[in-house]
Design goal:
Elements (H helix, E strand, L loop, with lengths): L30 E2 L2 E2 L1 E2 L10 H14 L9 H21 L7 E4 L2 H16 L5 E5 L8 H10 L2 E5 L9 H7 L4 E7 L11 H9 L5 E4 L11 H4 L3 E5 L10 E5 L1 H6 L10 E4 L4 E3 L13 H17 L1 H19 L5 E3 L9 E6 L4 H10 L2 E2 L1 E3 L4 H6 L5 E5 L6 H17 L3
Parallel strand pairs: 3-15, 5-6, 5-7, 7-8, 8-9
Antiparallel strand pairs: 1-2, 4-10, 9-10, 11-12, 13-14, 14-17, 16-17
Length: 420
């Protein structure tokens, strides 16, 4: 895999024991349309374990106050919980310091922060930003906006029919004009695990910084930003069994020191006068306004939960499911998998002959099976394969082979209704 296990990752549960934790997720016991819920949409958002729900509830019940600016007990408790979560994220990613962990709303805001702040400080007309052909819209549009503002040029590394990067083209596109490389670690539309370490090493040989979109890797693979040596790494809490509206940007301290603030307001300042403002120390320089305190605390609880299980065990469990699901889906007449990279994680995208993905998703929903259909916020990927959309089943640690059997049975119902 492209990620490296940090030294701080616990051994966790054995891979075969991971599915036993399904009972930790209250929502998975419910029914939809009179059928037991089979949730196969974790690339969209994950369900939340009781430990995360309880921790956020406890914050609001027992600790609710604003942080960093109060001298009373509740403020001290809230600040300790919030900053404790920052330390958990630091350890989760194996960053050197909490000064390198900026709390944001999620991966999208993290990328926008870098595009705005790094872009303002380091990108000018004629420079080039390099992305790939498998990016989520959140790793395309911010760079387009930057190029519109500065006159920089966006370059795209192509992908092959398997859904793998064409590394020879990447090396060719890297040049003295390249000011930043930004790429997804794991594709949300294809499941491809990119060779990010190789990508980073090639970029650094030209002194080009690299941003890694880790929205889909953080839930599935151990990530060590020190070993990867990436300059920026972004992920979202709701993808790792935590709350929505919470996430983190890791950035090397040298960049955060050099970049101008992303937004202005409370908490990102040291002092303000009408003549001049001086900025707060890292990471608060990039955290203007009242934070999503409950979200940060919930994010810390989600990190605790994943680390207790062990990302290695989670990855092994999901790899087994991916192999099993691939085998079962390929047995279905008229079904074609989209994205067959040799290194994959957690995603099964497919189409069925002359059946629109939206129809597939609607019929599966009536069978209790939740998947996502559409372009998955990755329209250039769909264009690459000449498709308007795909159906996507995506895996979480709570899934089992029985869930994939239910998916296959539901697809049998789809074929039946369409007279196949």
């Amino acid at each position: 895999m492209s990620a490296t296990t940090p030294a701080t990752t616990k051994p966790g549960a054995a891979a075969g024991d991971i599915a036993a934790h399904r009972s930790d997720f209250p929502i998975l016991s419910r029914q939809v349309h009179g059928k037991p819920l089979v949730y196969l949409d974790s690339a969209n958002t994950t369900q939340k374990p009781e430990a995360v729900l309880e921790r956020m509830d406890r914050y609001y019940r027992d600790e609710n106050a604003n942080i960093h600016r109060g001298t009373h007990l509740l403020s001290e408790l809230a600040t300790a919980a919030y900053e404790g979560a920052r330390e958990k994220v630091r350890s989760f990613l194996n960053a050197r310091s909490t000064r390198e962990i900026v709390f944001v709303r999620g991966t999208t805001e993290a990328i926008n922060l870098v595009a705005s702040s790094y872009g303002q400080g380091f990108v000018k007309a004629g420079d080039e930003i390099l992305i790939t052909g498998m990016e989520h819209h959140s790793n395309i549009v911010p760079w387009q906006l930057l190029c519109q503002r500065t006159g920089a040029v966006l370059k795209v590394v192509p992908i092959d029919d398997r859904g793998e990067l064409v590394l020879e083209e990447y090396e060719r596109l890297l040049s003295e004009r390249t000011k930043l490389v930004s790429l997804v670690h794991v594709s949300n539309a294809l499941g491809t695990v990119n060779p990010v370490k190789r990508v980073i090493d090639l970029a650094h040989a030209r002194n080009v910084p690299v941003l890694v979109d880790g929205a889909q890797s953080a839930p599935h693979l151990p990530v060590d930003v020190a070993a990867l040596d990436c300059d920026f790494f972004a992920f979202s809490g709701h993808k790792i069994y935590g709350p929505t509206g919470a996430g983190a940007l890791y950035a090397k301290e040298k960049w955060l020191e050099a970049m101008p603030p992303y937004q202005g307001g409370g908490d990102m300042i040291a002092s303000v006068s009408f003549e001049k403002t001086t900025y707060n120390e890292l990471p608060y320089k990039f955290e203007a306004g009242t934070s999503n305190i409950a979200g940060g605390v919930g994010l810390g609880a989600a990190v605790d939960y994943l680390r207790e299980l062990g990302l290695d065990a989670v990855a092994a469990h999901e790899h087994d499911l991916l192999a099993y699901g691939t085998e079962r889906l390929l047995e279905i007449p008229g079904l074609t998998l989209v994205g067959t990279a040799r290194e994959k994680a957690g995603v099964l995208s497919f189409v069925m002959d002359e059946i629109h993905p939206h129809d597939i998703g609607t019929i599966l929903d009536r069978e209790g099976v939740a998947i996502r259909t559409g372009h998955h916020c990755a329209q250039p990927v769909m264009t690459r394969y000449g498709l308007p959309a795909t159906a996507r089943a995506s895996l979480g640690l709570y899934n089992t082979r029985a869930d994939l059997d239910a998916l296959v049975a539901g697809l049998g119902r789809v074929r039946e209704l369409f007279g196949r």
